[in-house]
Specification:
heterodimer; A: alpha+beta; B: 313 residues; mainly alpha; two-stranded antiparallel ribbon
């Protein structure tokens, strides 16, 4: 019985997390549309939706081909509950082309390409010193915009 | 005795691992040798970026959206030709989930293409059919009355028209992904991507292959094809672990396009970043080597045409 009491808070939290998962997922759509898309001002959003709920310490990856002659903006946003999102863009040779931790945690990166390339975007929610027992979770959205030339 | 048995077992494992390592590295030796012979030792192919795919919580495969596809066609020098778009009258023919999803992608690329060339009346008509298909698929908020009104009132303002198309596609893809229909979202994207390939390859006509910017742009889609394959493979099983017949069928249908792309070589060099100012952004300097023979392009053109015509029936 005592053992049961010990685990009760964990069980309650787990149940709450599961119950909240579906509505929270739905909130990512609103978050991406209303907040993250603003980061693409001046660019045309491509219309693709890449968003997920991530917890501190978790990572996501995105693979995309970028084409020569286009000017792109990459925007990565995390909801308020999360610390600032870290991300890197790497090429097929694993060269790091952009690391936002080296650019004052910039949420956007503007670039053009001389030649078309497949690139990988690696996103990480850093772990913070959290006073509560459970790590924070929230929406993370990756968006691309381009400019007509 | 038991000690000797474990030693023997340990040695066998070491031996087998060694054999495996030698075999793997020899395979890589042969590939390196092949690249060296072709003078491509500093270039990688479209599959190499997936080499160290992480066990990240979430992996996204991103294809050019219909809007980006249309933009790429325009920047490659394609001119507008309404004759290549999917017939509006066919919209009632699409009764299965798969045909609805593929043609929603196809019509959205057509809509983007028409809008980018300022074809106001055609854009309205294509917006109507995308709205109808989206509604049929249960995505009622993809194109609401307000969106239609905004489009009609700003037909001569290309920026607003582009924004409306982008918003519409975002509504569709977010609805599908947040309602556990990633497979349907993938089919919409594949339909739109294939329509871009179709329009581009139809516009080439009998132009020479050598030094043809549009053909190079089409050949570069080989890079996106590897993403198409992975995205579909990821959706082969549903959440219950059952086979997704639509996706498996689509993978099989794409076989001809895959075979044609296999005959085209696209290799990329490492990227060097040239930092730019705030206005122009950074420039990613690299080289892409494309080898496409007239025969290989004809094969791709035919495979794309046949598959696209099959989808729009």
């Amino acid at each position: 019985m005592n053992r049961m009491k010990k685990y009760l808070p964990y069980m309650v939290t787990l149940t709450l997390v599961i119950m909240l998962a579906v509505p929270a997922q739905a909130q990512c759509k609103g978050f991406a549309k209303k907040l993250c898309k603003l980061e693409l001002t001046g660019y045309i959003h491509d219309g693709n939706y890449h968003a997920a709920i991530l917890t501190e310490g978790e990572e996501a990856e995105l693979y995309k081909t970028f084409f020569a002659g286009q000017k792109y903006r990459l925007a990565i946003c995390g909801s308020e509950t999360l610390p600032q999102i870290e991300y890197q863009v790497v090429d097929a040779y694993k060269n790091v082309l952009f690391d936002n931790t080296q650019h004052e945690m910039a949420g956007t990166w503007d670039f053009s390409l001389e030649s078309s390339q497949q690139l990988k975007v690696m996103v990480k929610v850093p772990v913070t010193e959290n006073k509560s027992e459970f790590p924070n979770s929230g929406c993370v959205s990756i968006m691309f915009g381009f400019q007509e030339k | 005795m038991q000690h000797a048995y474990f030693n023997l077992r340990f040695l066998s494992i070491v031996f087998l691992s060694g054999l495996l390592l030698v075999n793997t590295s020899c395979k890589s030796c042969k590939e390196n040798q092949k690249n060296k012979e072709a003078g491509l030792e500093d270039f990688l192919t479209e599959e190499d970026i997936f080499d160290d795919i992480n066990k990240a919580k979430k992996i996204f495969y991103s294809l050019p959206s219909p809007l980006e596809t249309a933009m790429l066609l325009k920047s490659a020098g394609v001119t507008y030709n309404e004759g290549v778009l999917n017939d509006l009258g066919r919209v009632d023919n699409y009764s299965t989930n798969k045909s609805k999803a593929l043609n929603l992608g196809i019509y959205t690329t057509d809509l983007s293409f028409a809008s980018l060339f300022d074809q106001a009346q055609t854009s309205i008509k294509y917006m109507d059919v995308t709205k109808k298909l989206a509604n049929d698929m249960g995505i009622s908020d993809a194109v609401d009355e307000e969106t239609m009104k905004r489009l009609e009132q700003n037909l001569n303002n290309r920026d607003v028209v582009m924004d409306v198309i982008s918003e519409t596609f975002l509504n569709t893809s977010s609805y599908l992904k947040e309602n556990d229909q990633q497979d349907v979202a993938a089919m919409v994207l594949v339909g739109g991507w294939l329509e871009g390939l179709y329009i581009g390859s139809q516009m080439v006509g009998d132009s020479p292959v050598e030094g043809n910017k549009l053909i190079d742009r089409i050949a570069e889609q080989k890079l996106s094809f590897s993403i198409v394959e992975r995205m579909l493979q990821e959706n082969k099983l549903n959440q219950k672990g059952e086979e997704n017949r639509d996706i498996i069928e689509l993978i099989n249908e794409l076989h001809g396009v895959k075979m044609a792309f296999d005959k085209i070589e696209v290799q990329t060099s490492a990227v060097k970043v040239e930092e730019g100012g705030e206005a122009e952004g950074d420039m990613l300097k690299s080289q892409t080597k494309i080898k496409v023979t007239p025969e290989a392009f004809k094969e791709l053109q035919a495979a794309v045409q046949s598959l696209r015509n099959n989808f729009v029936q």
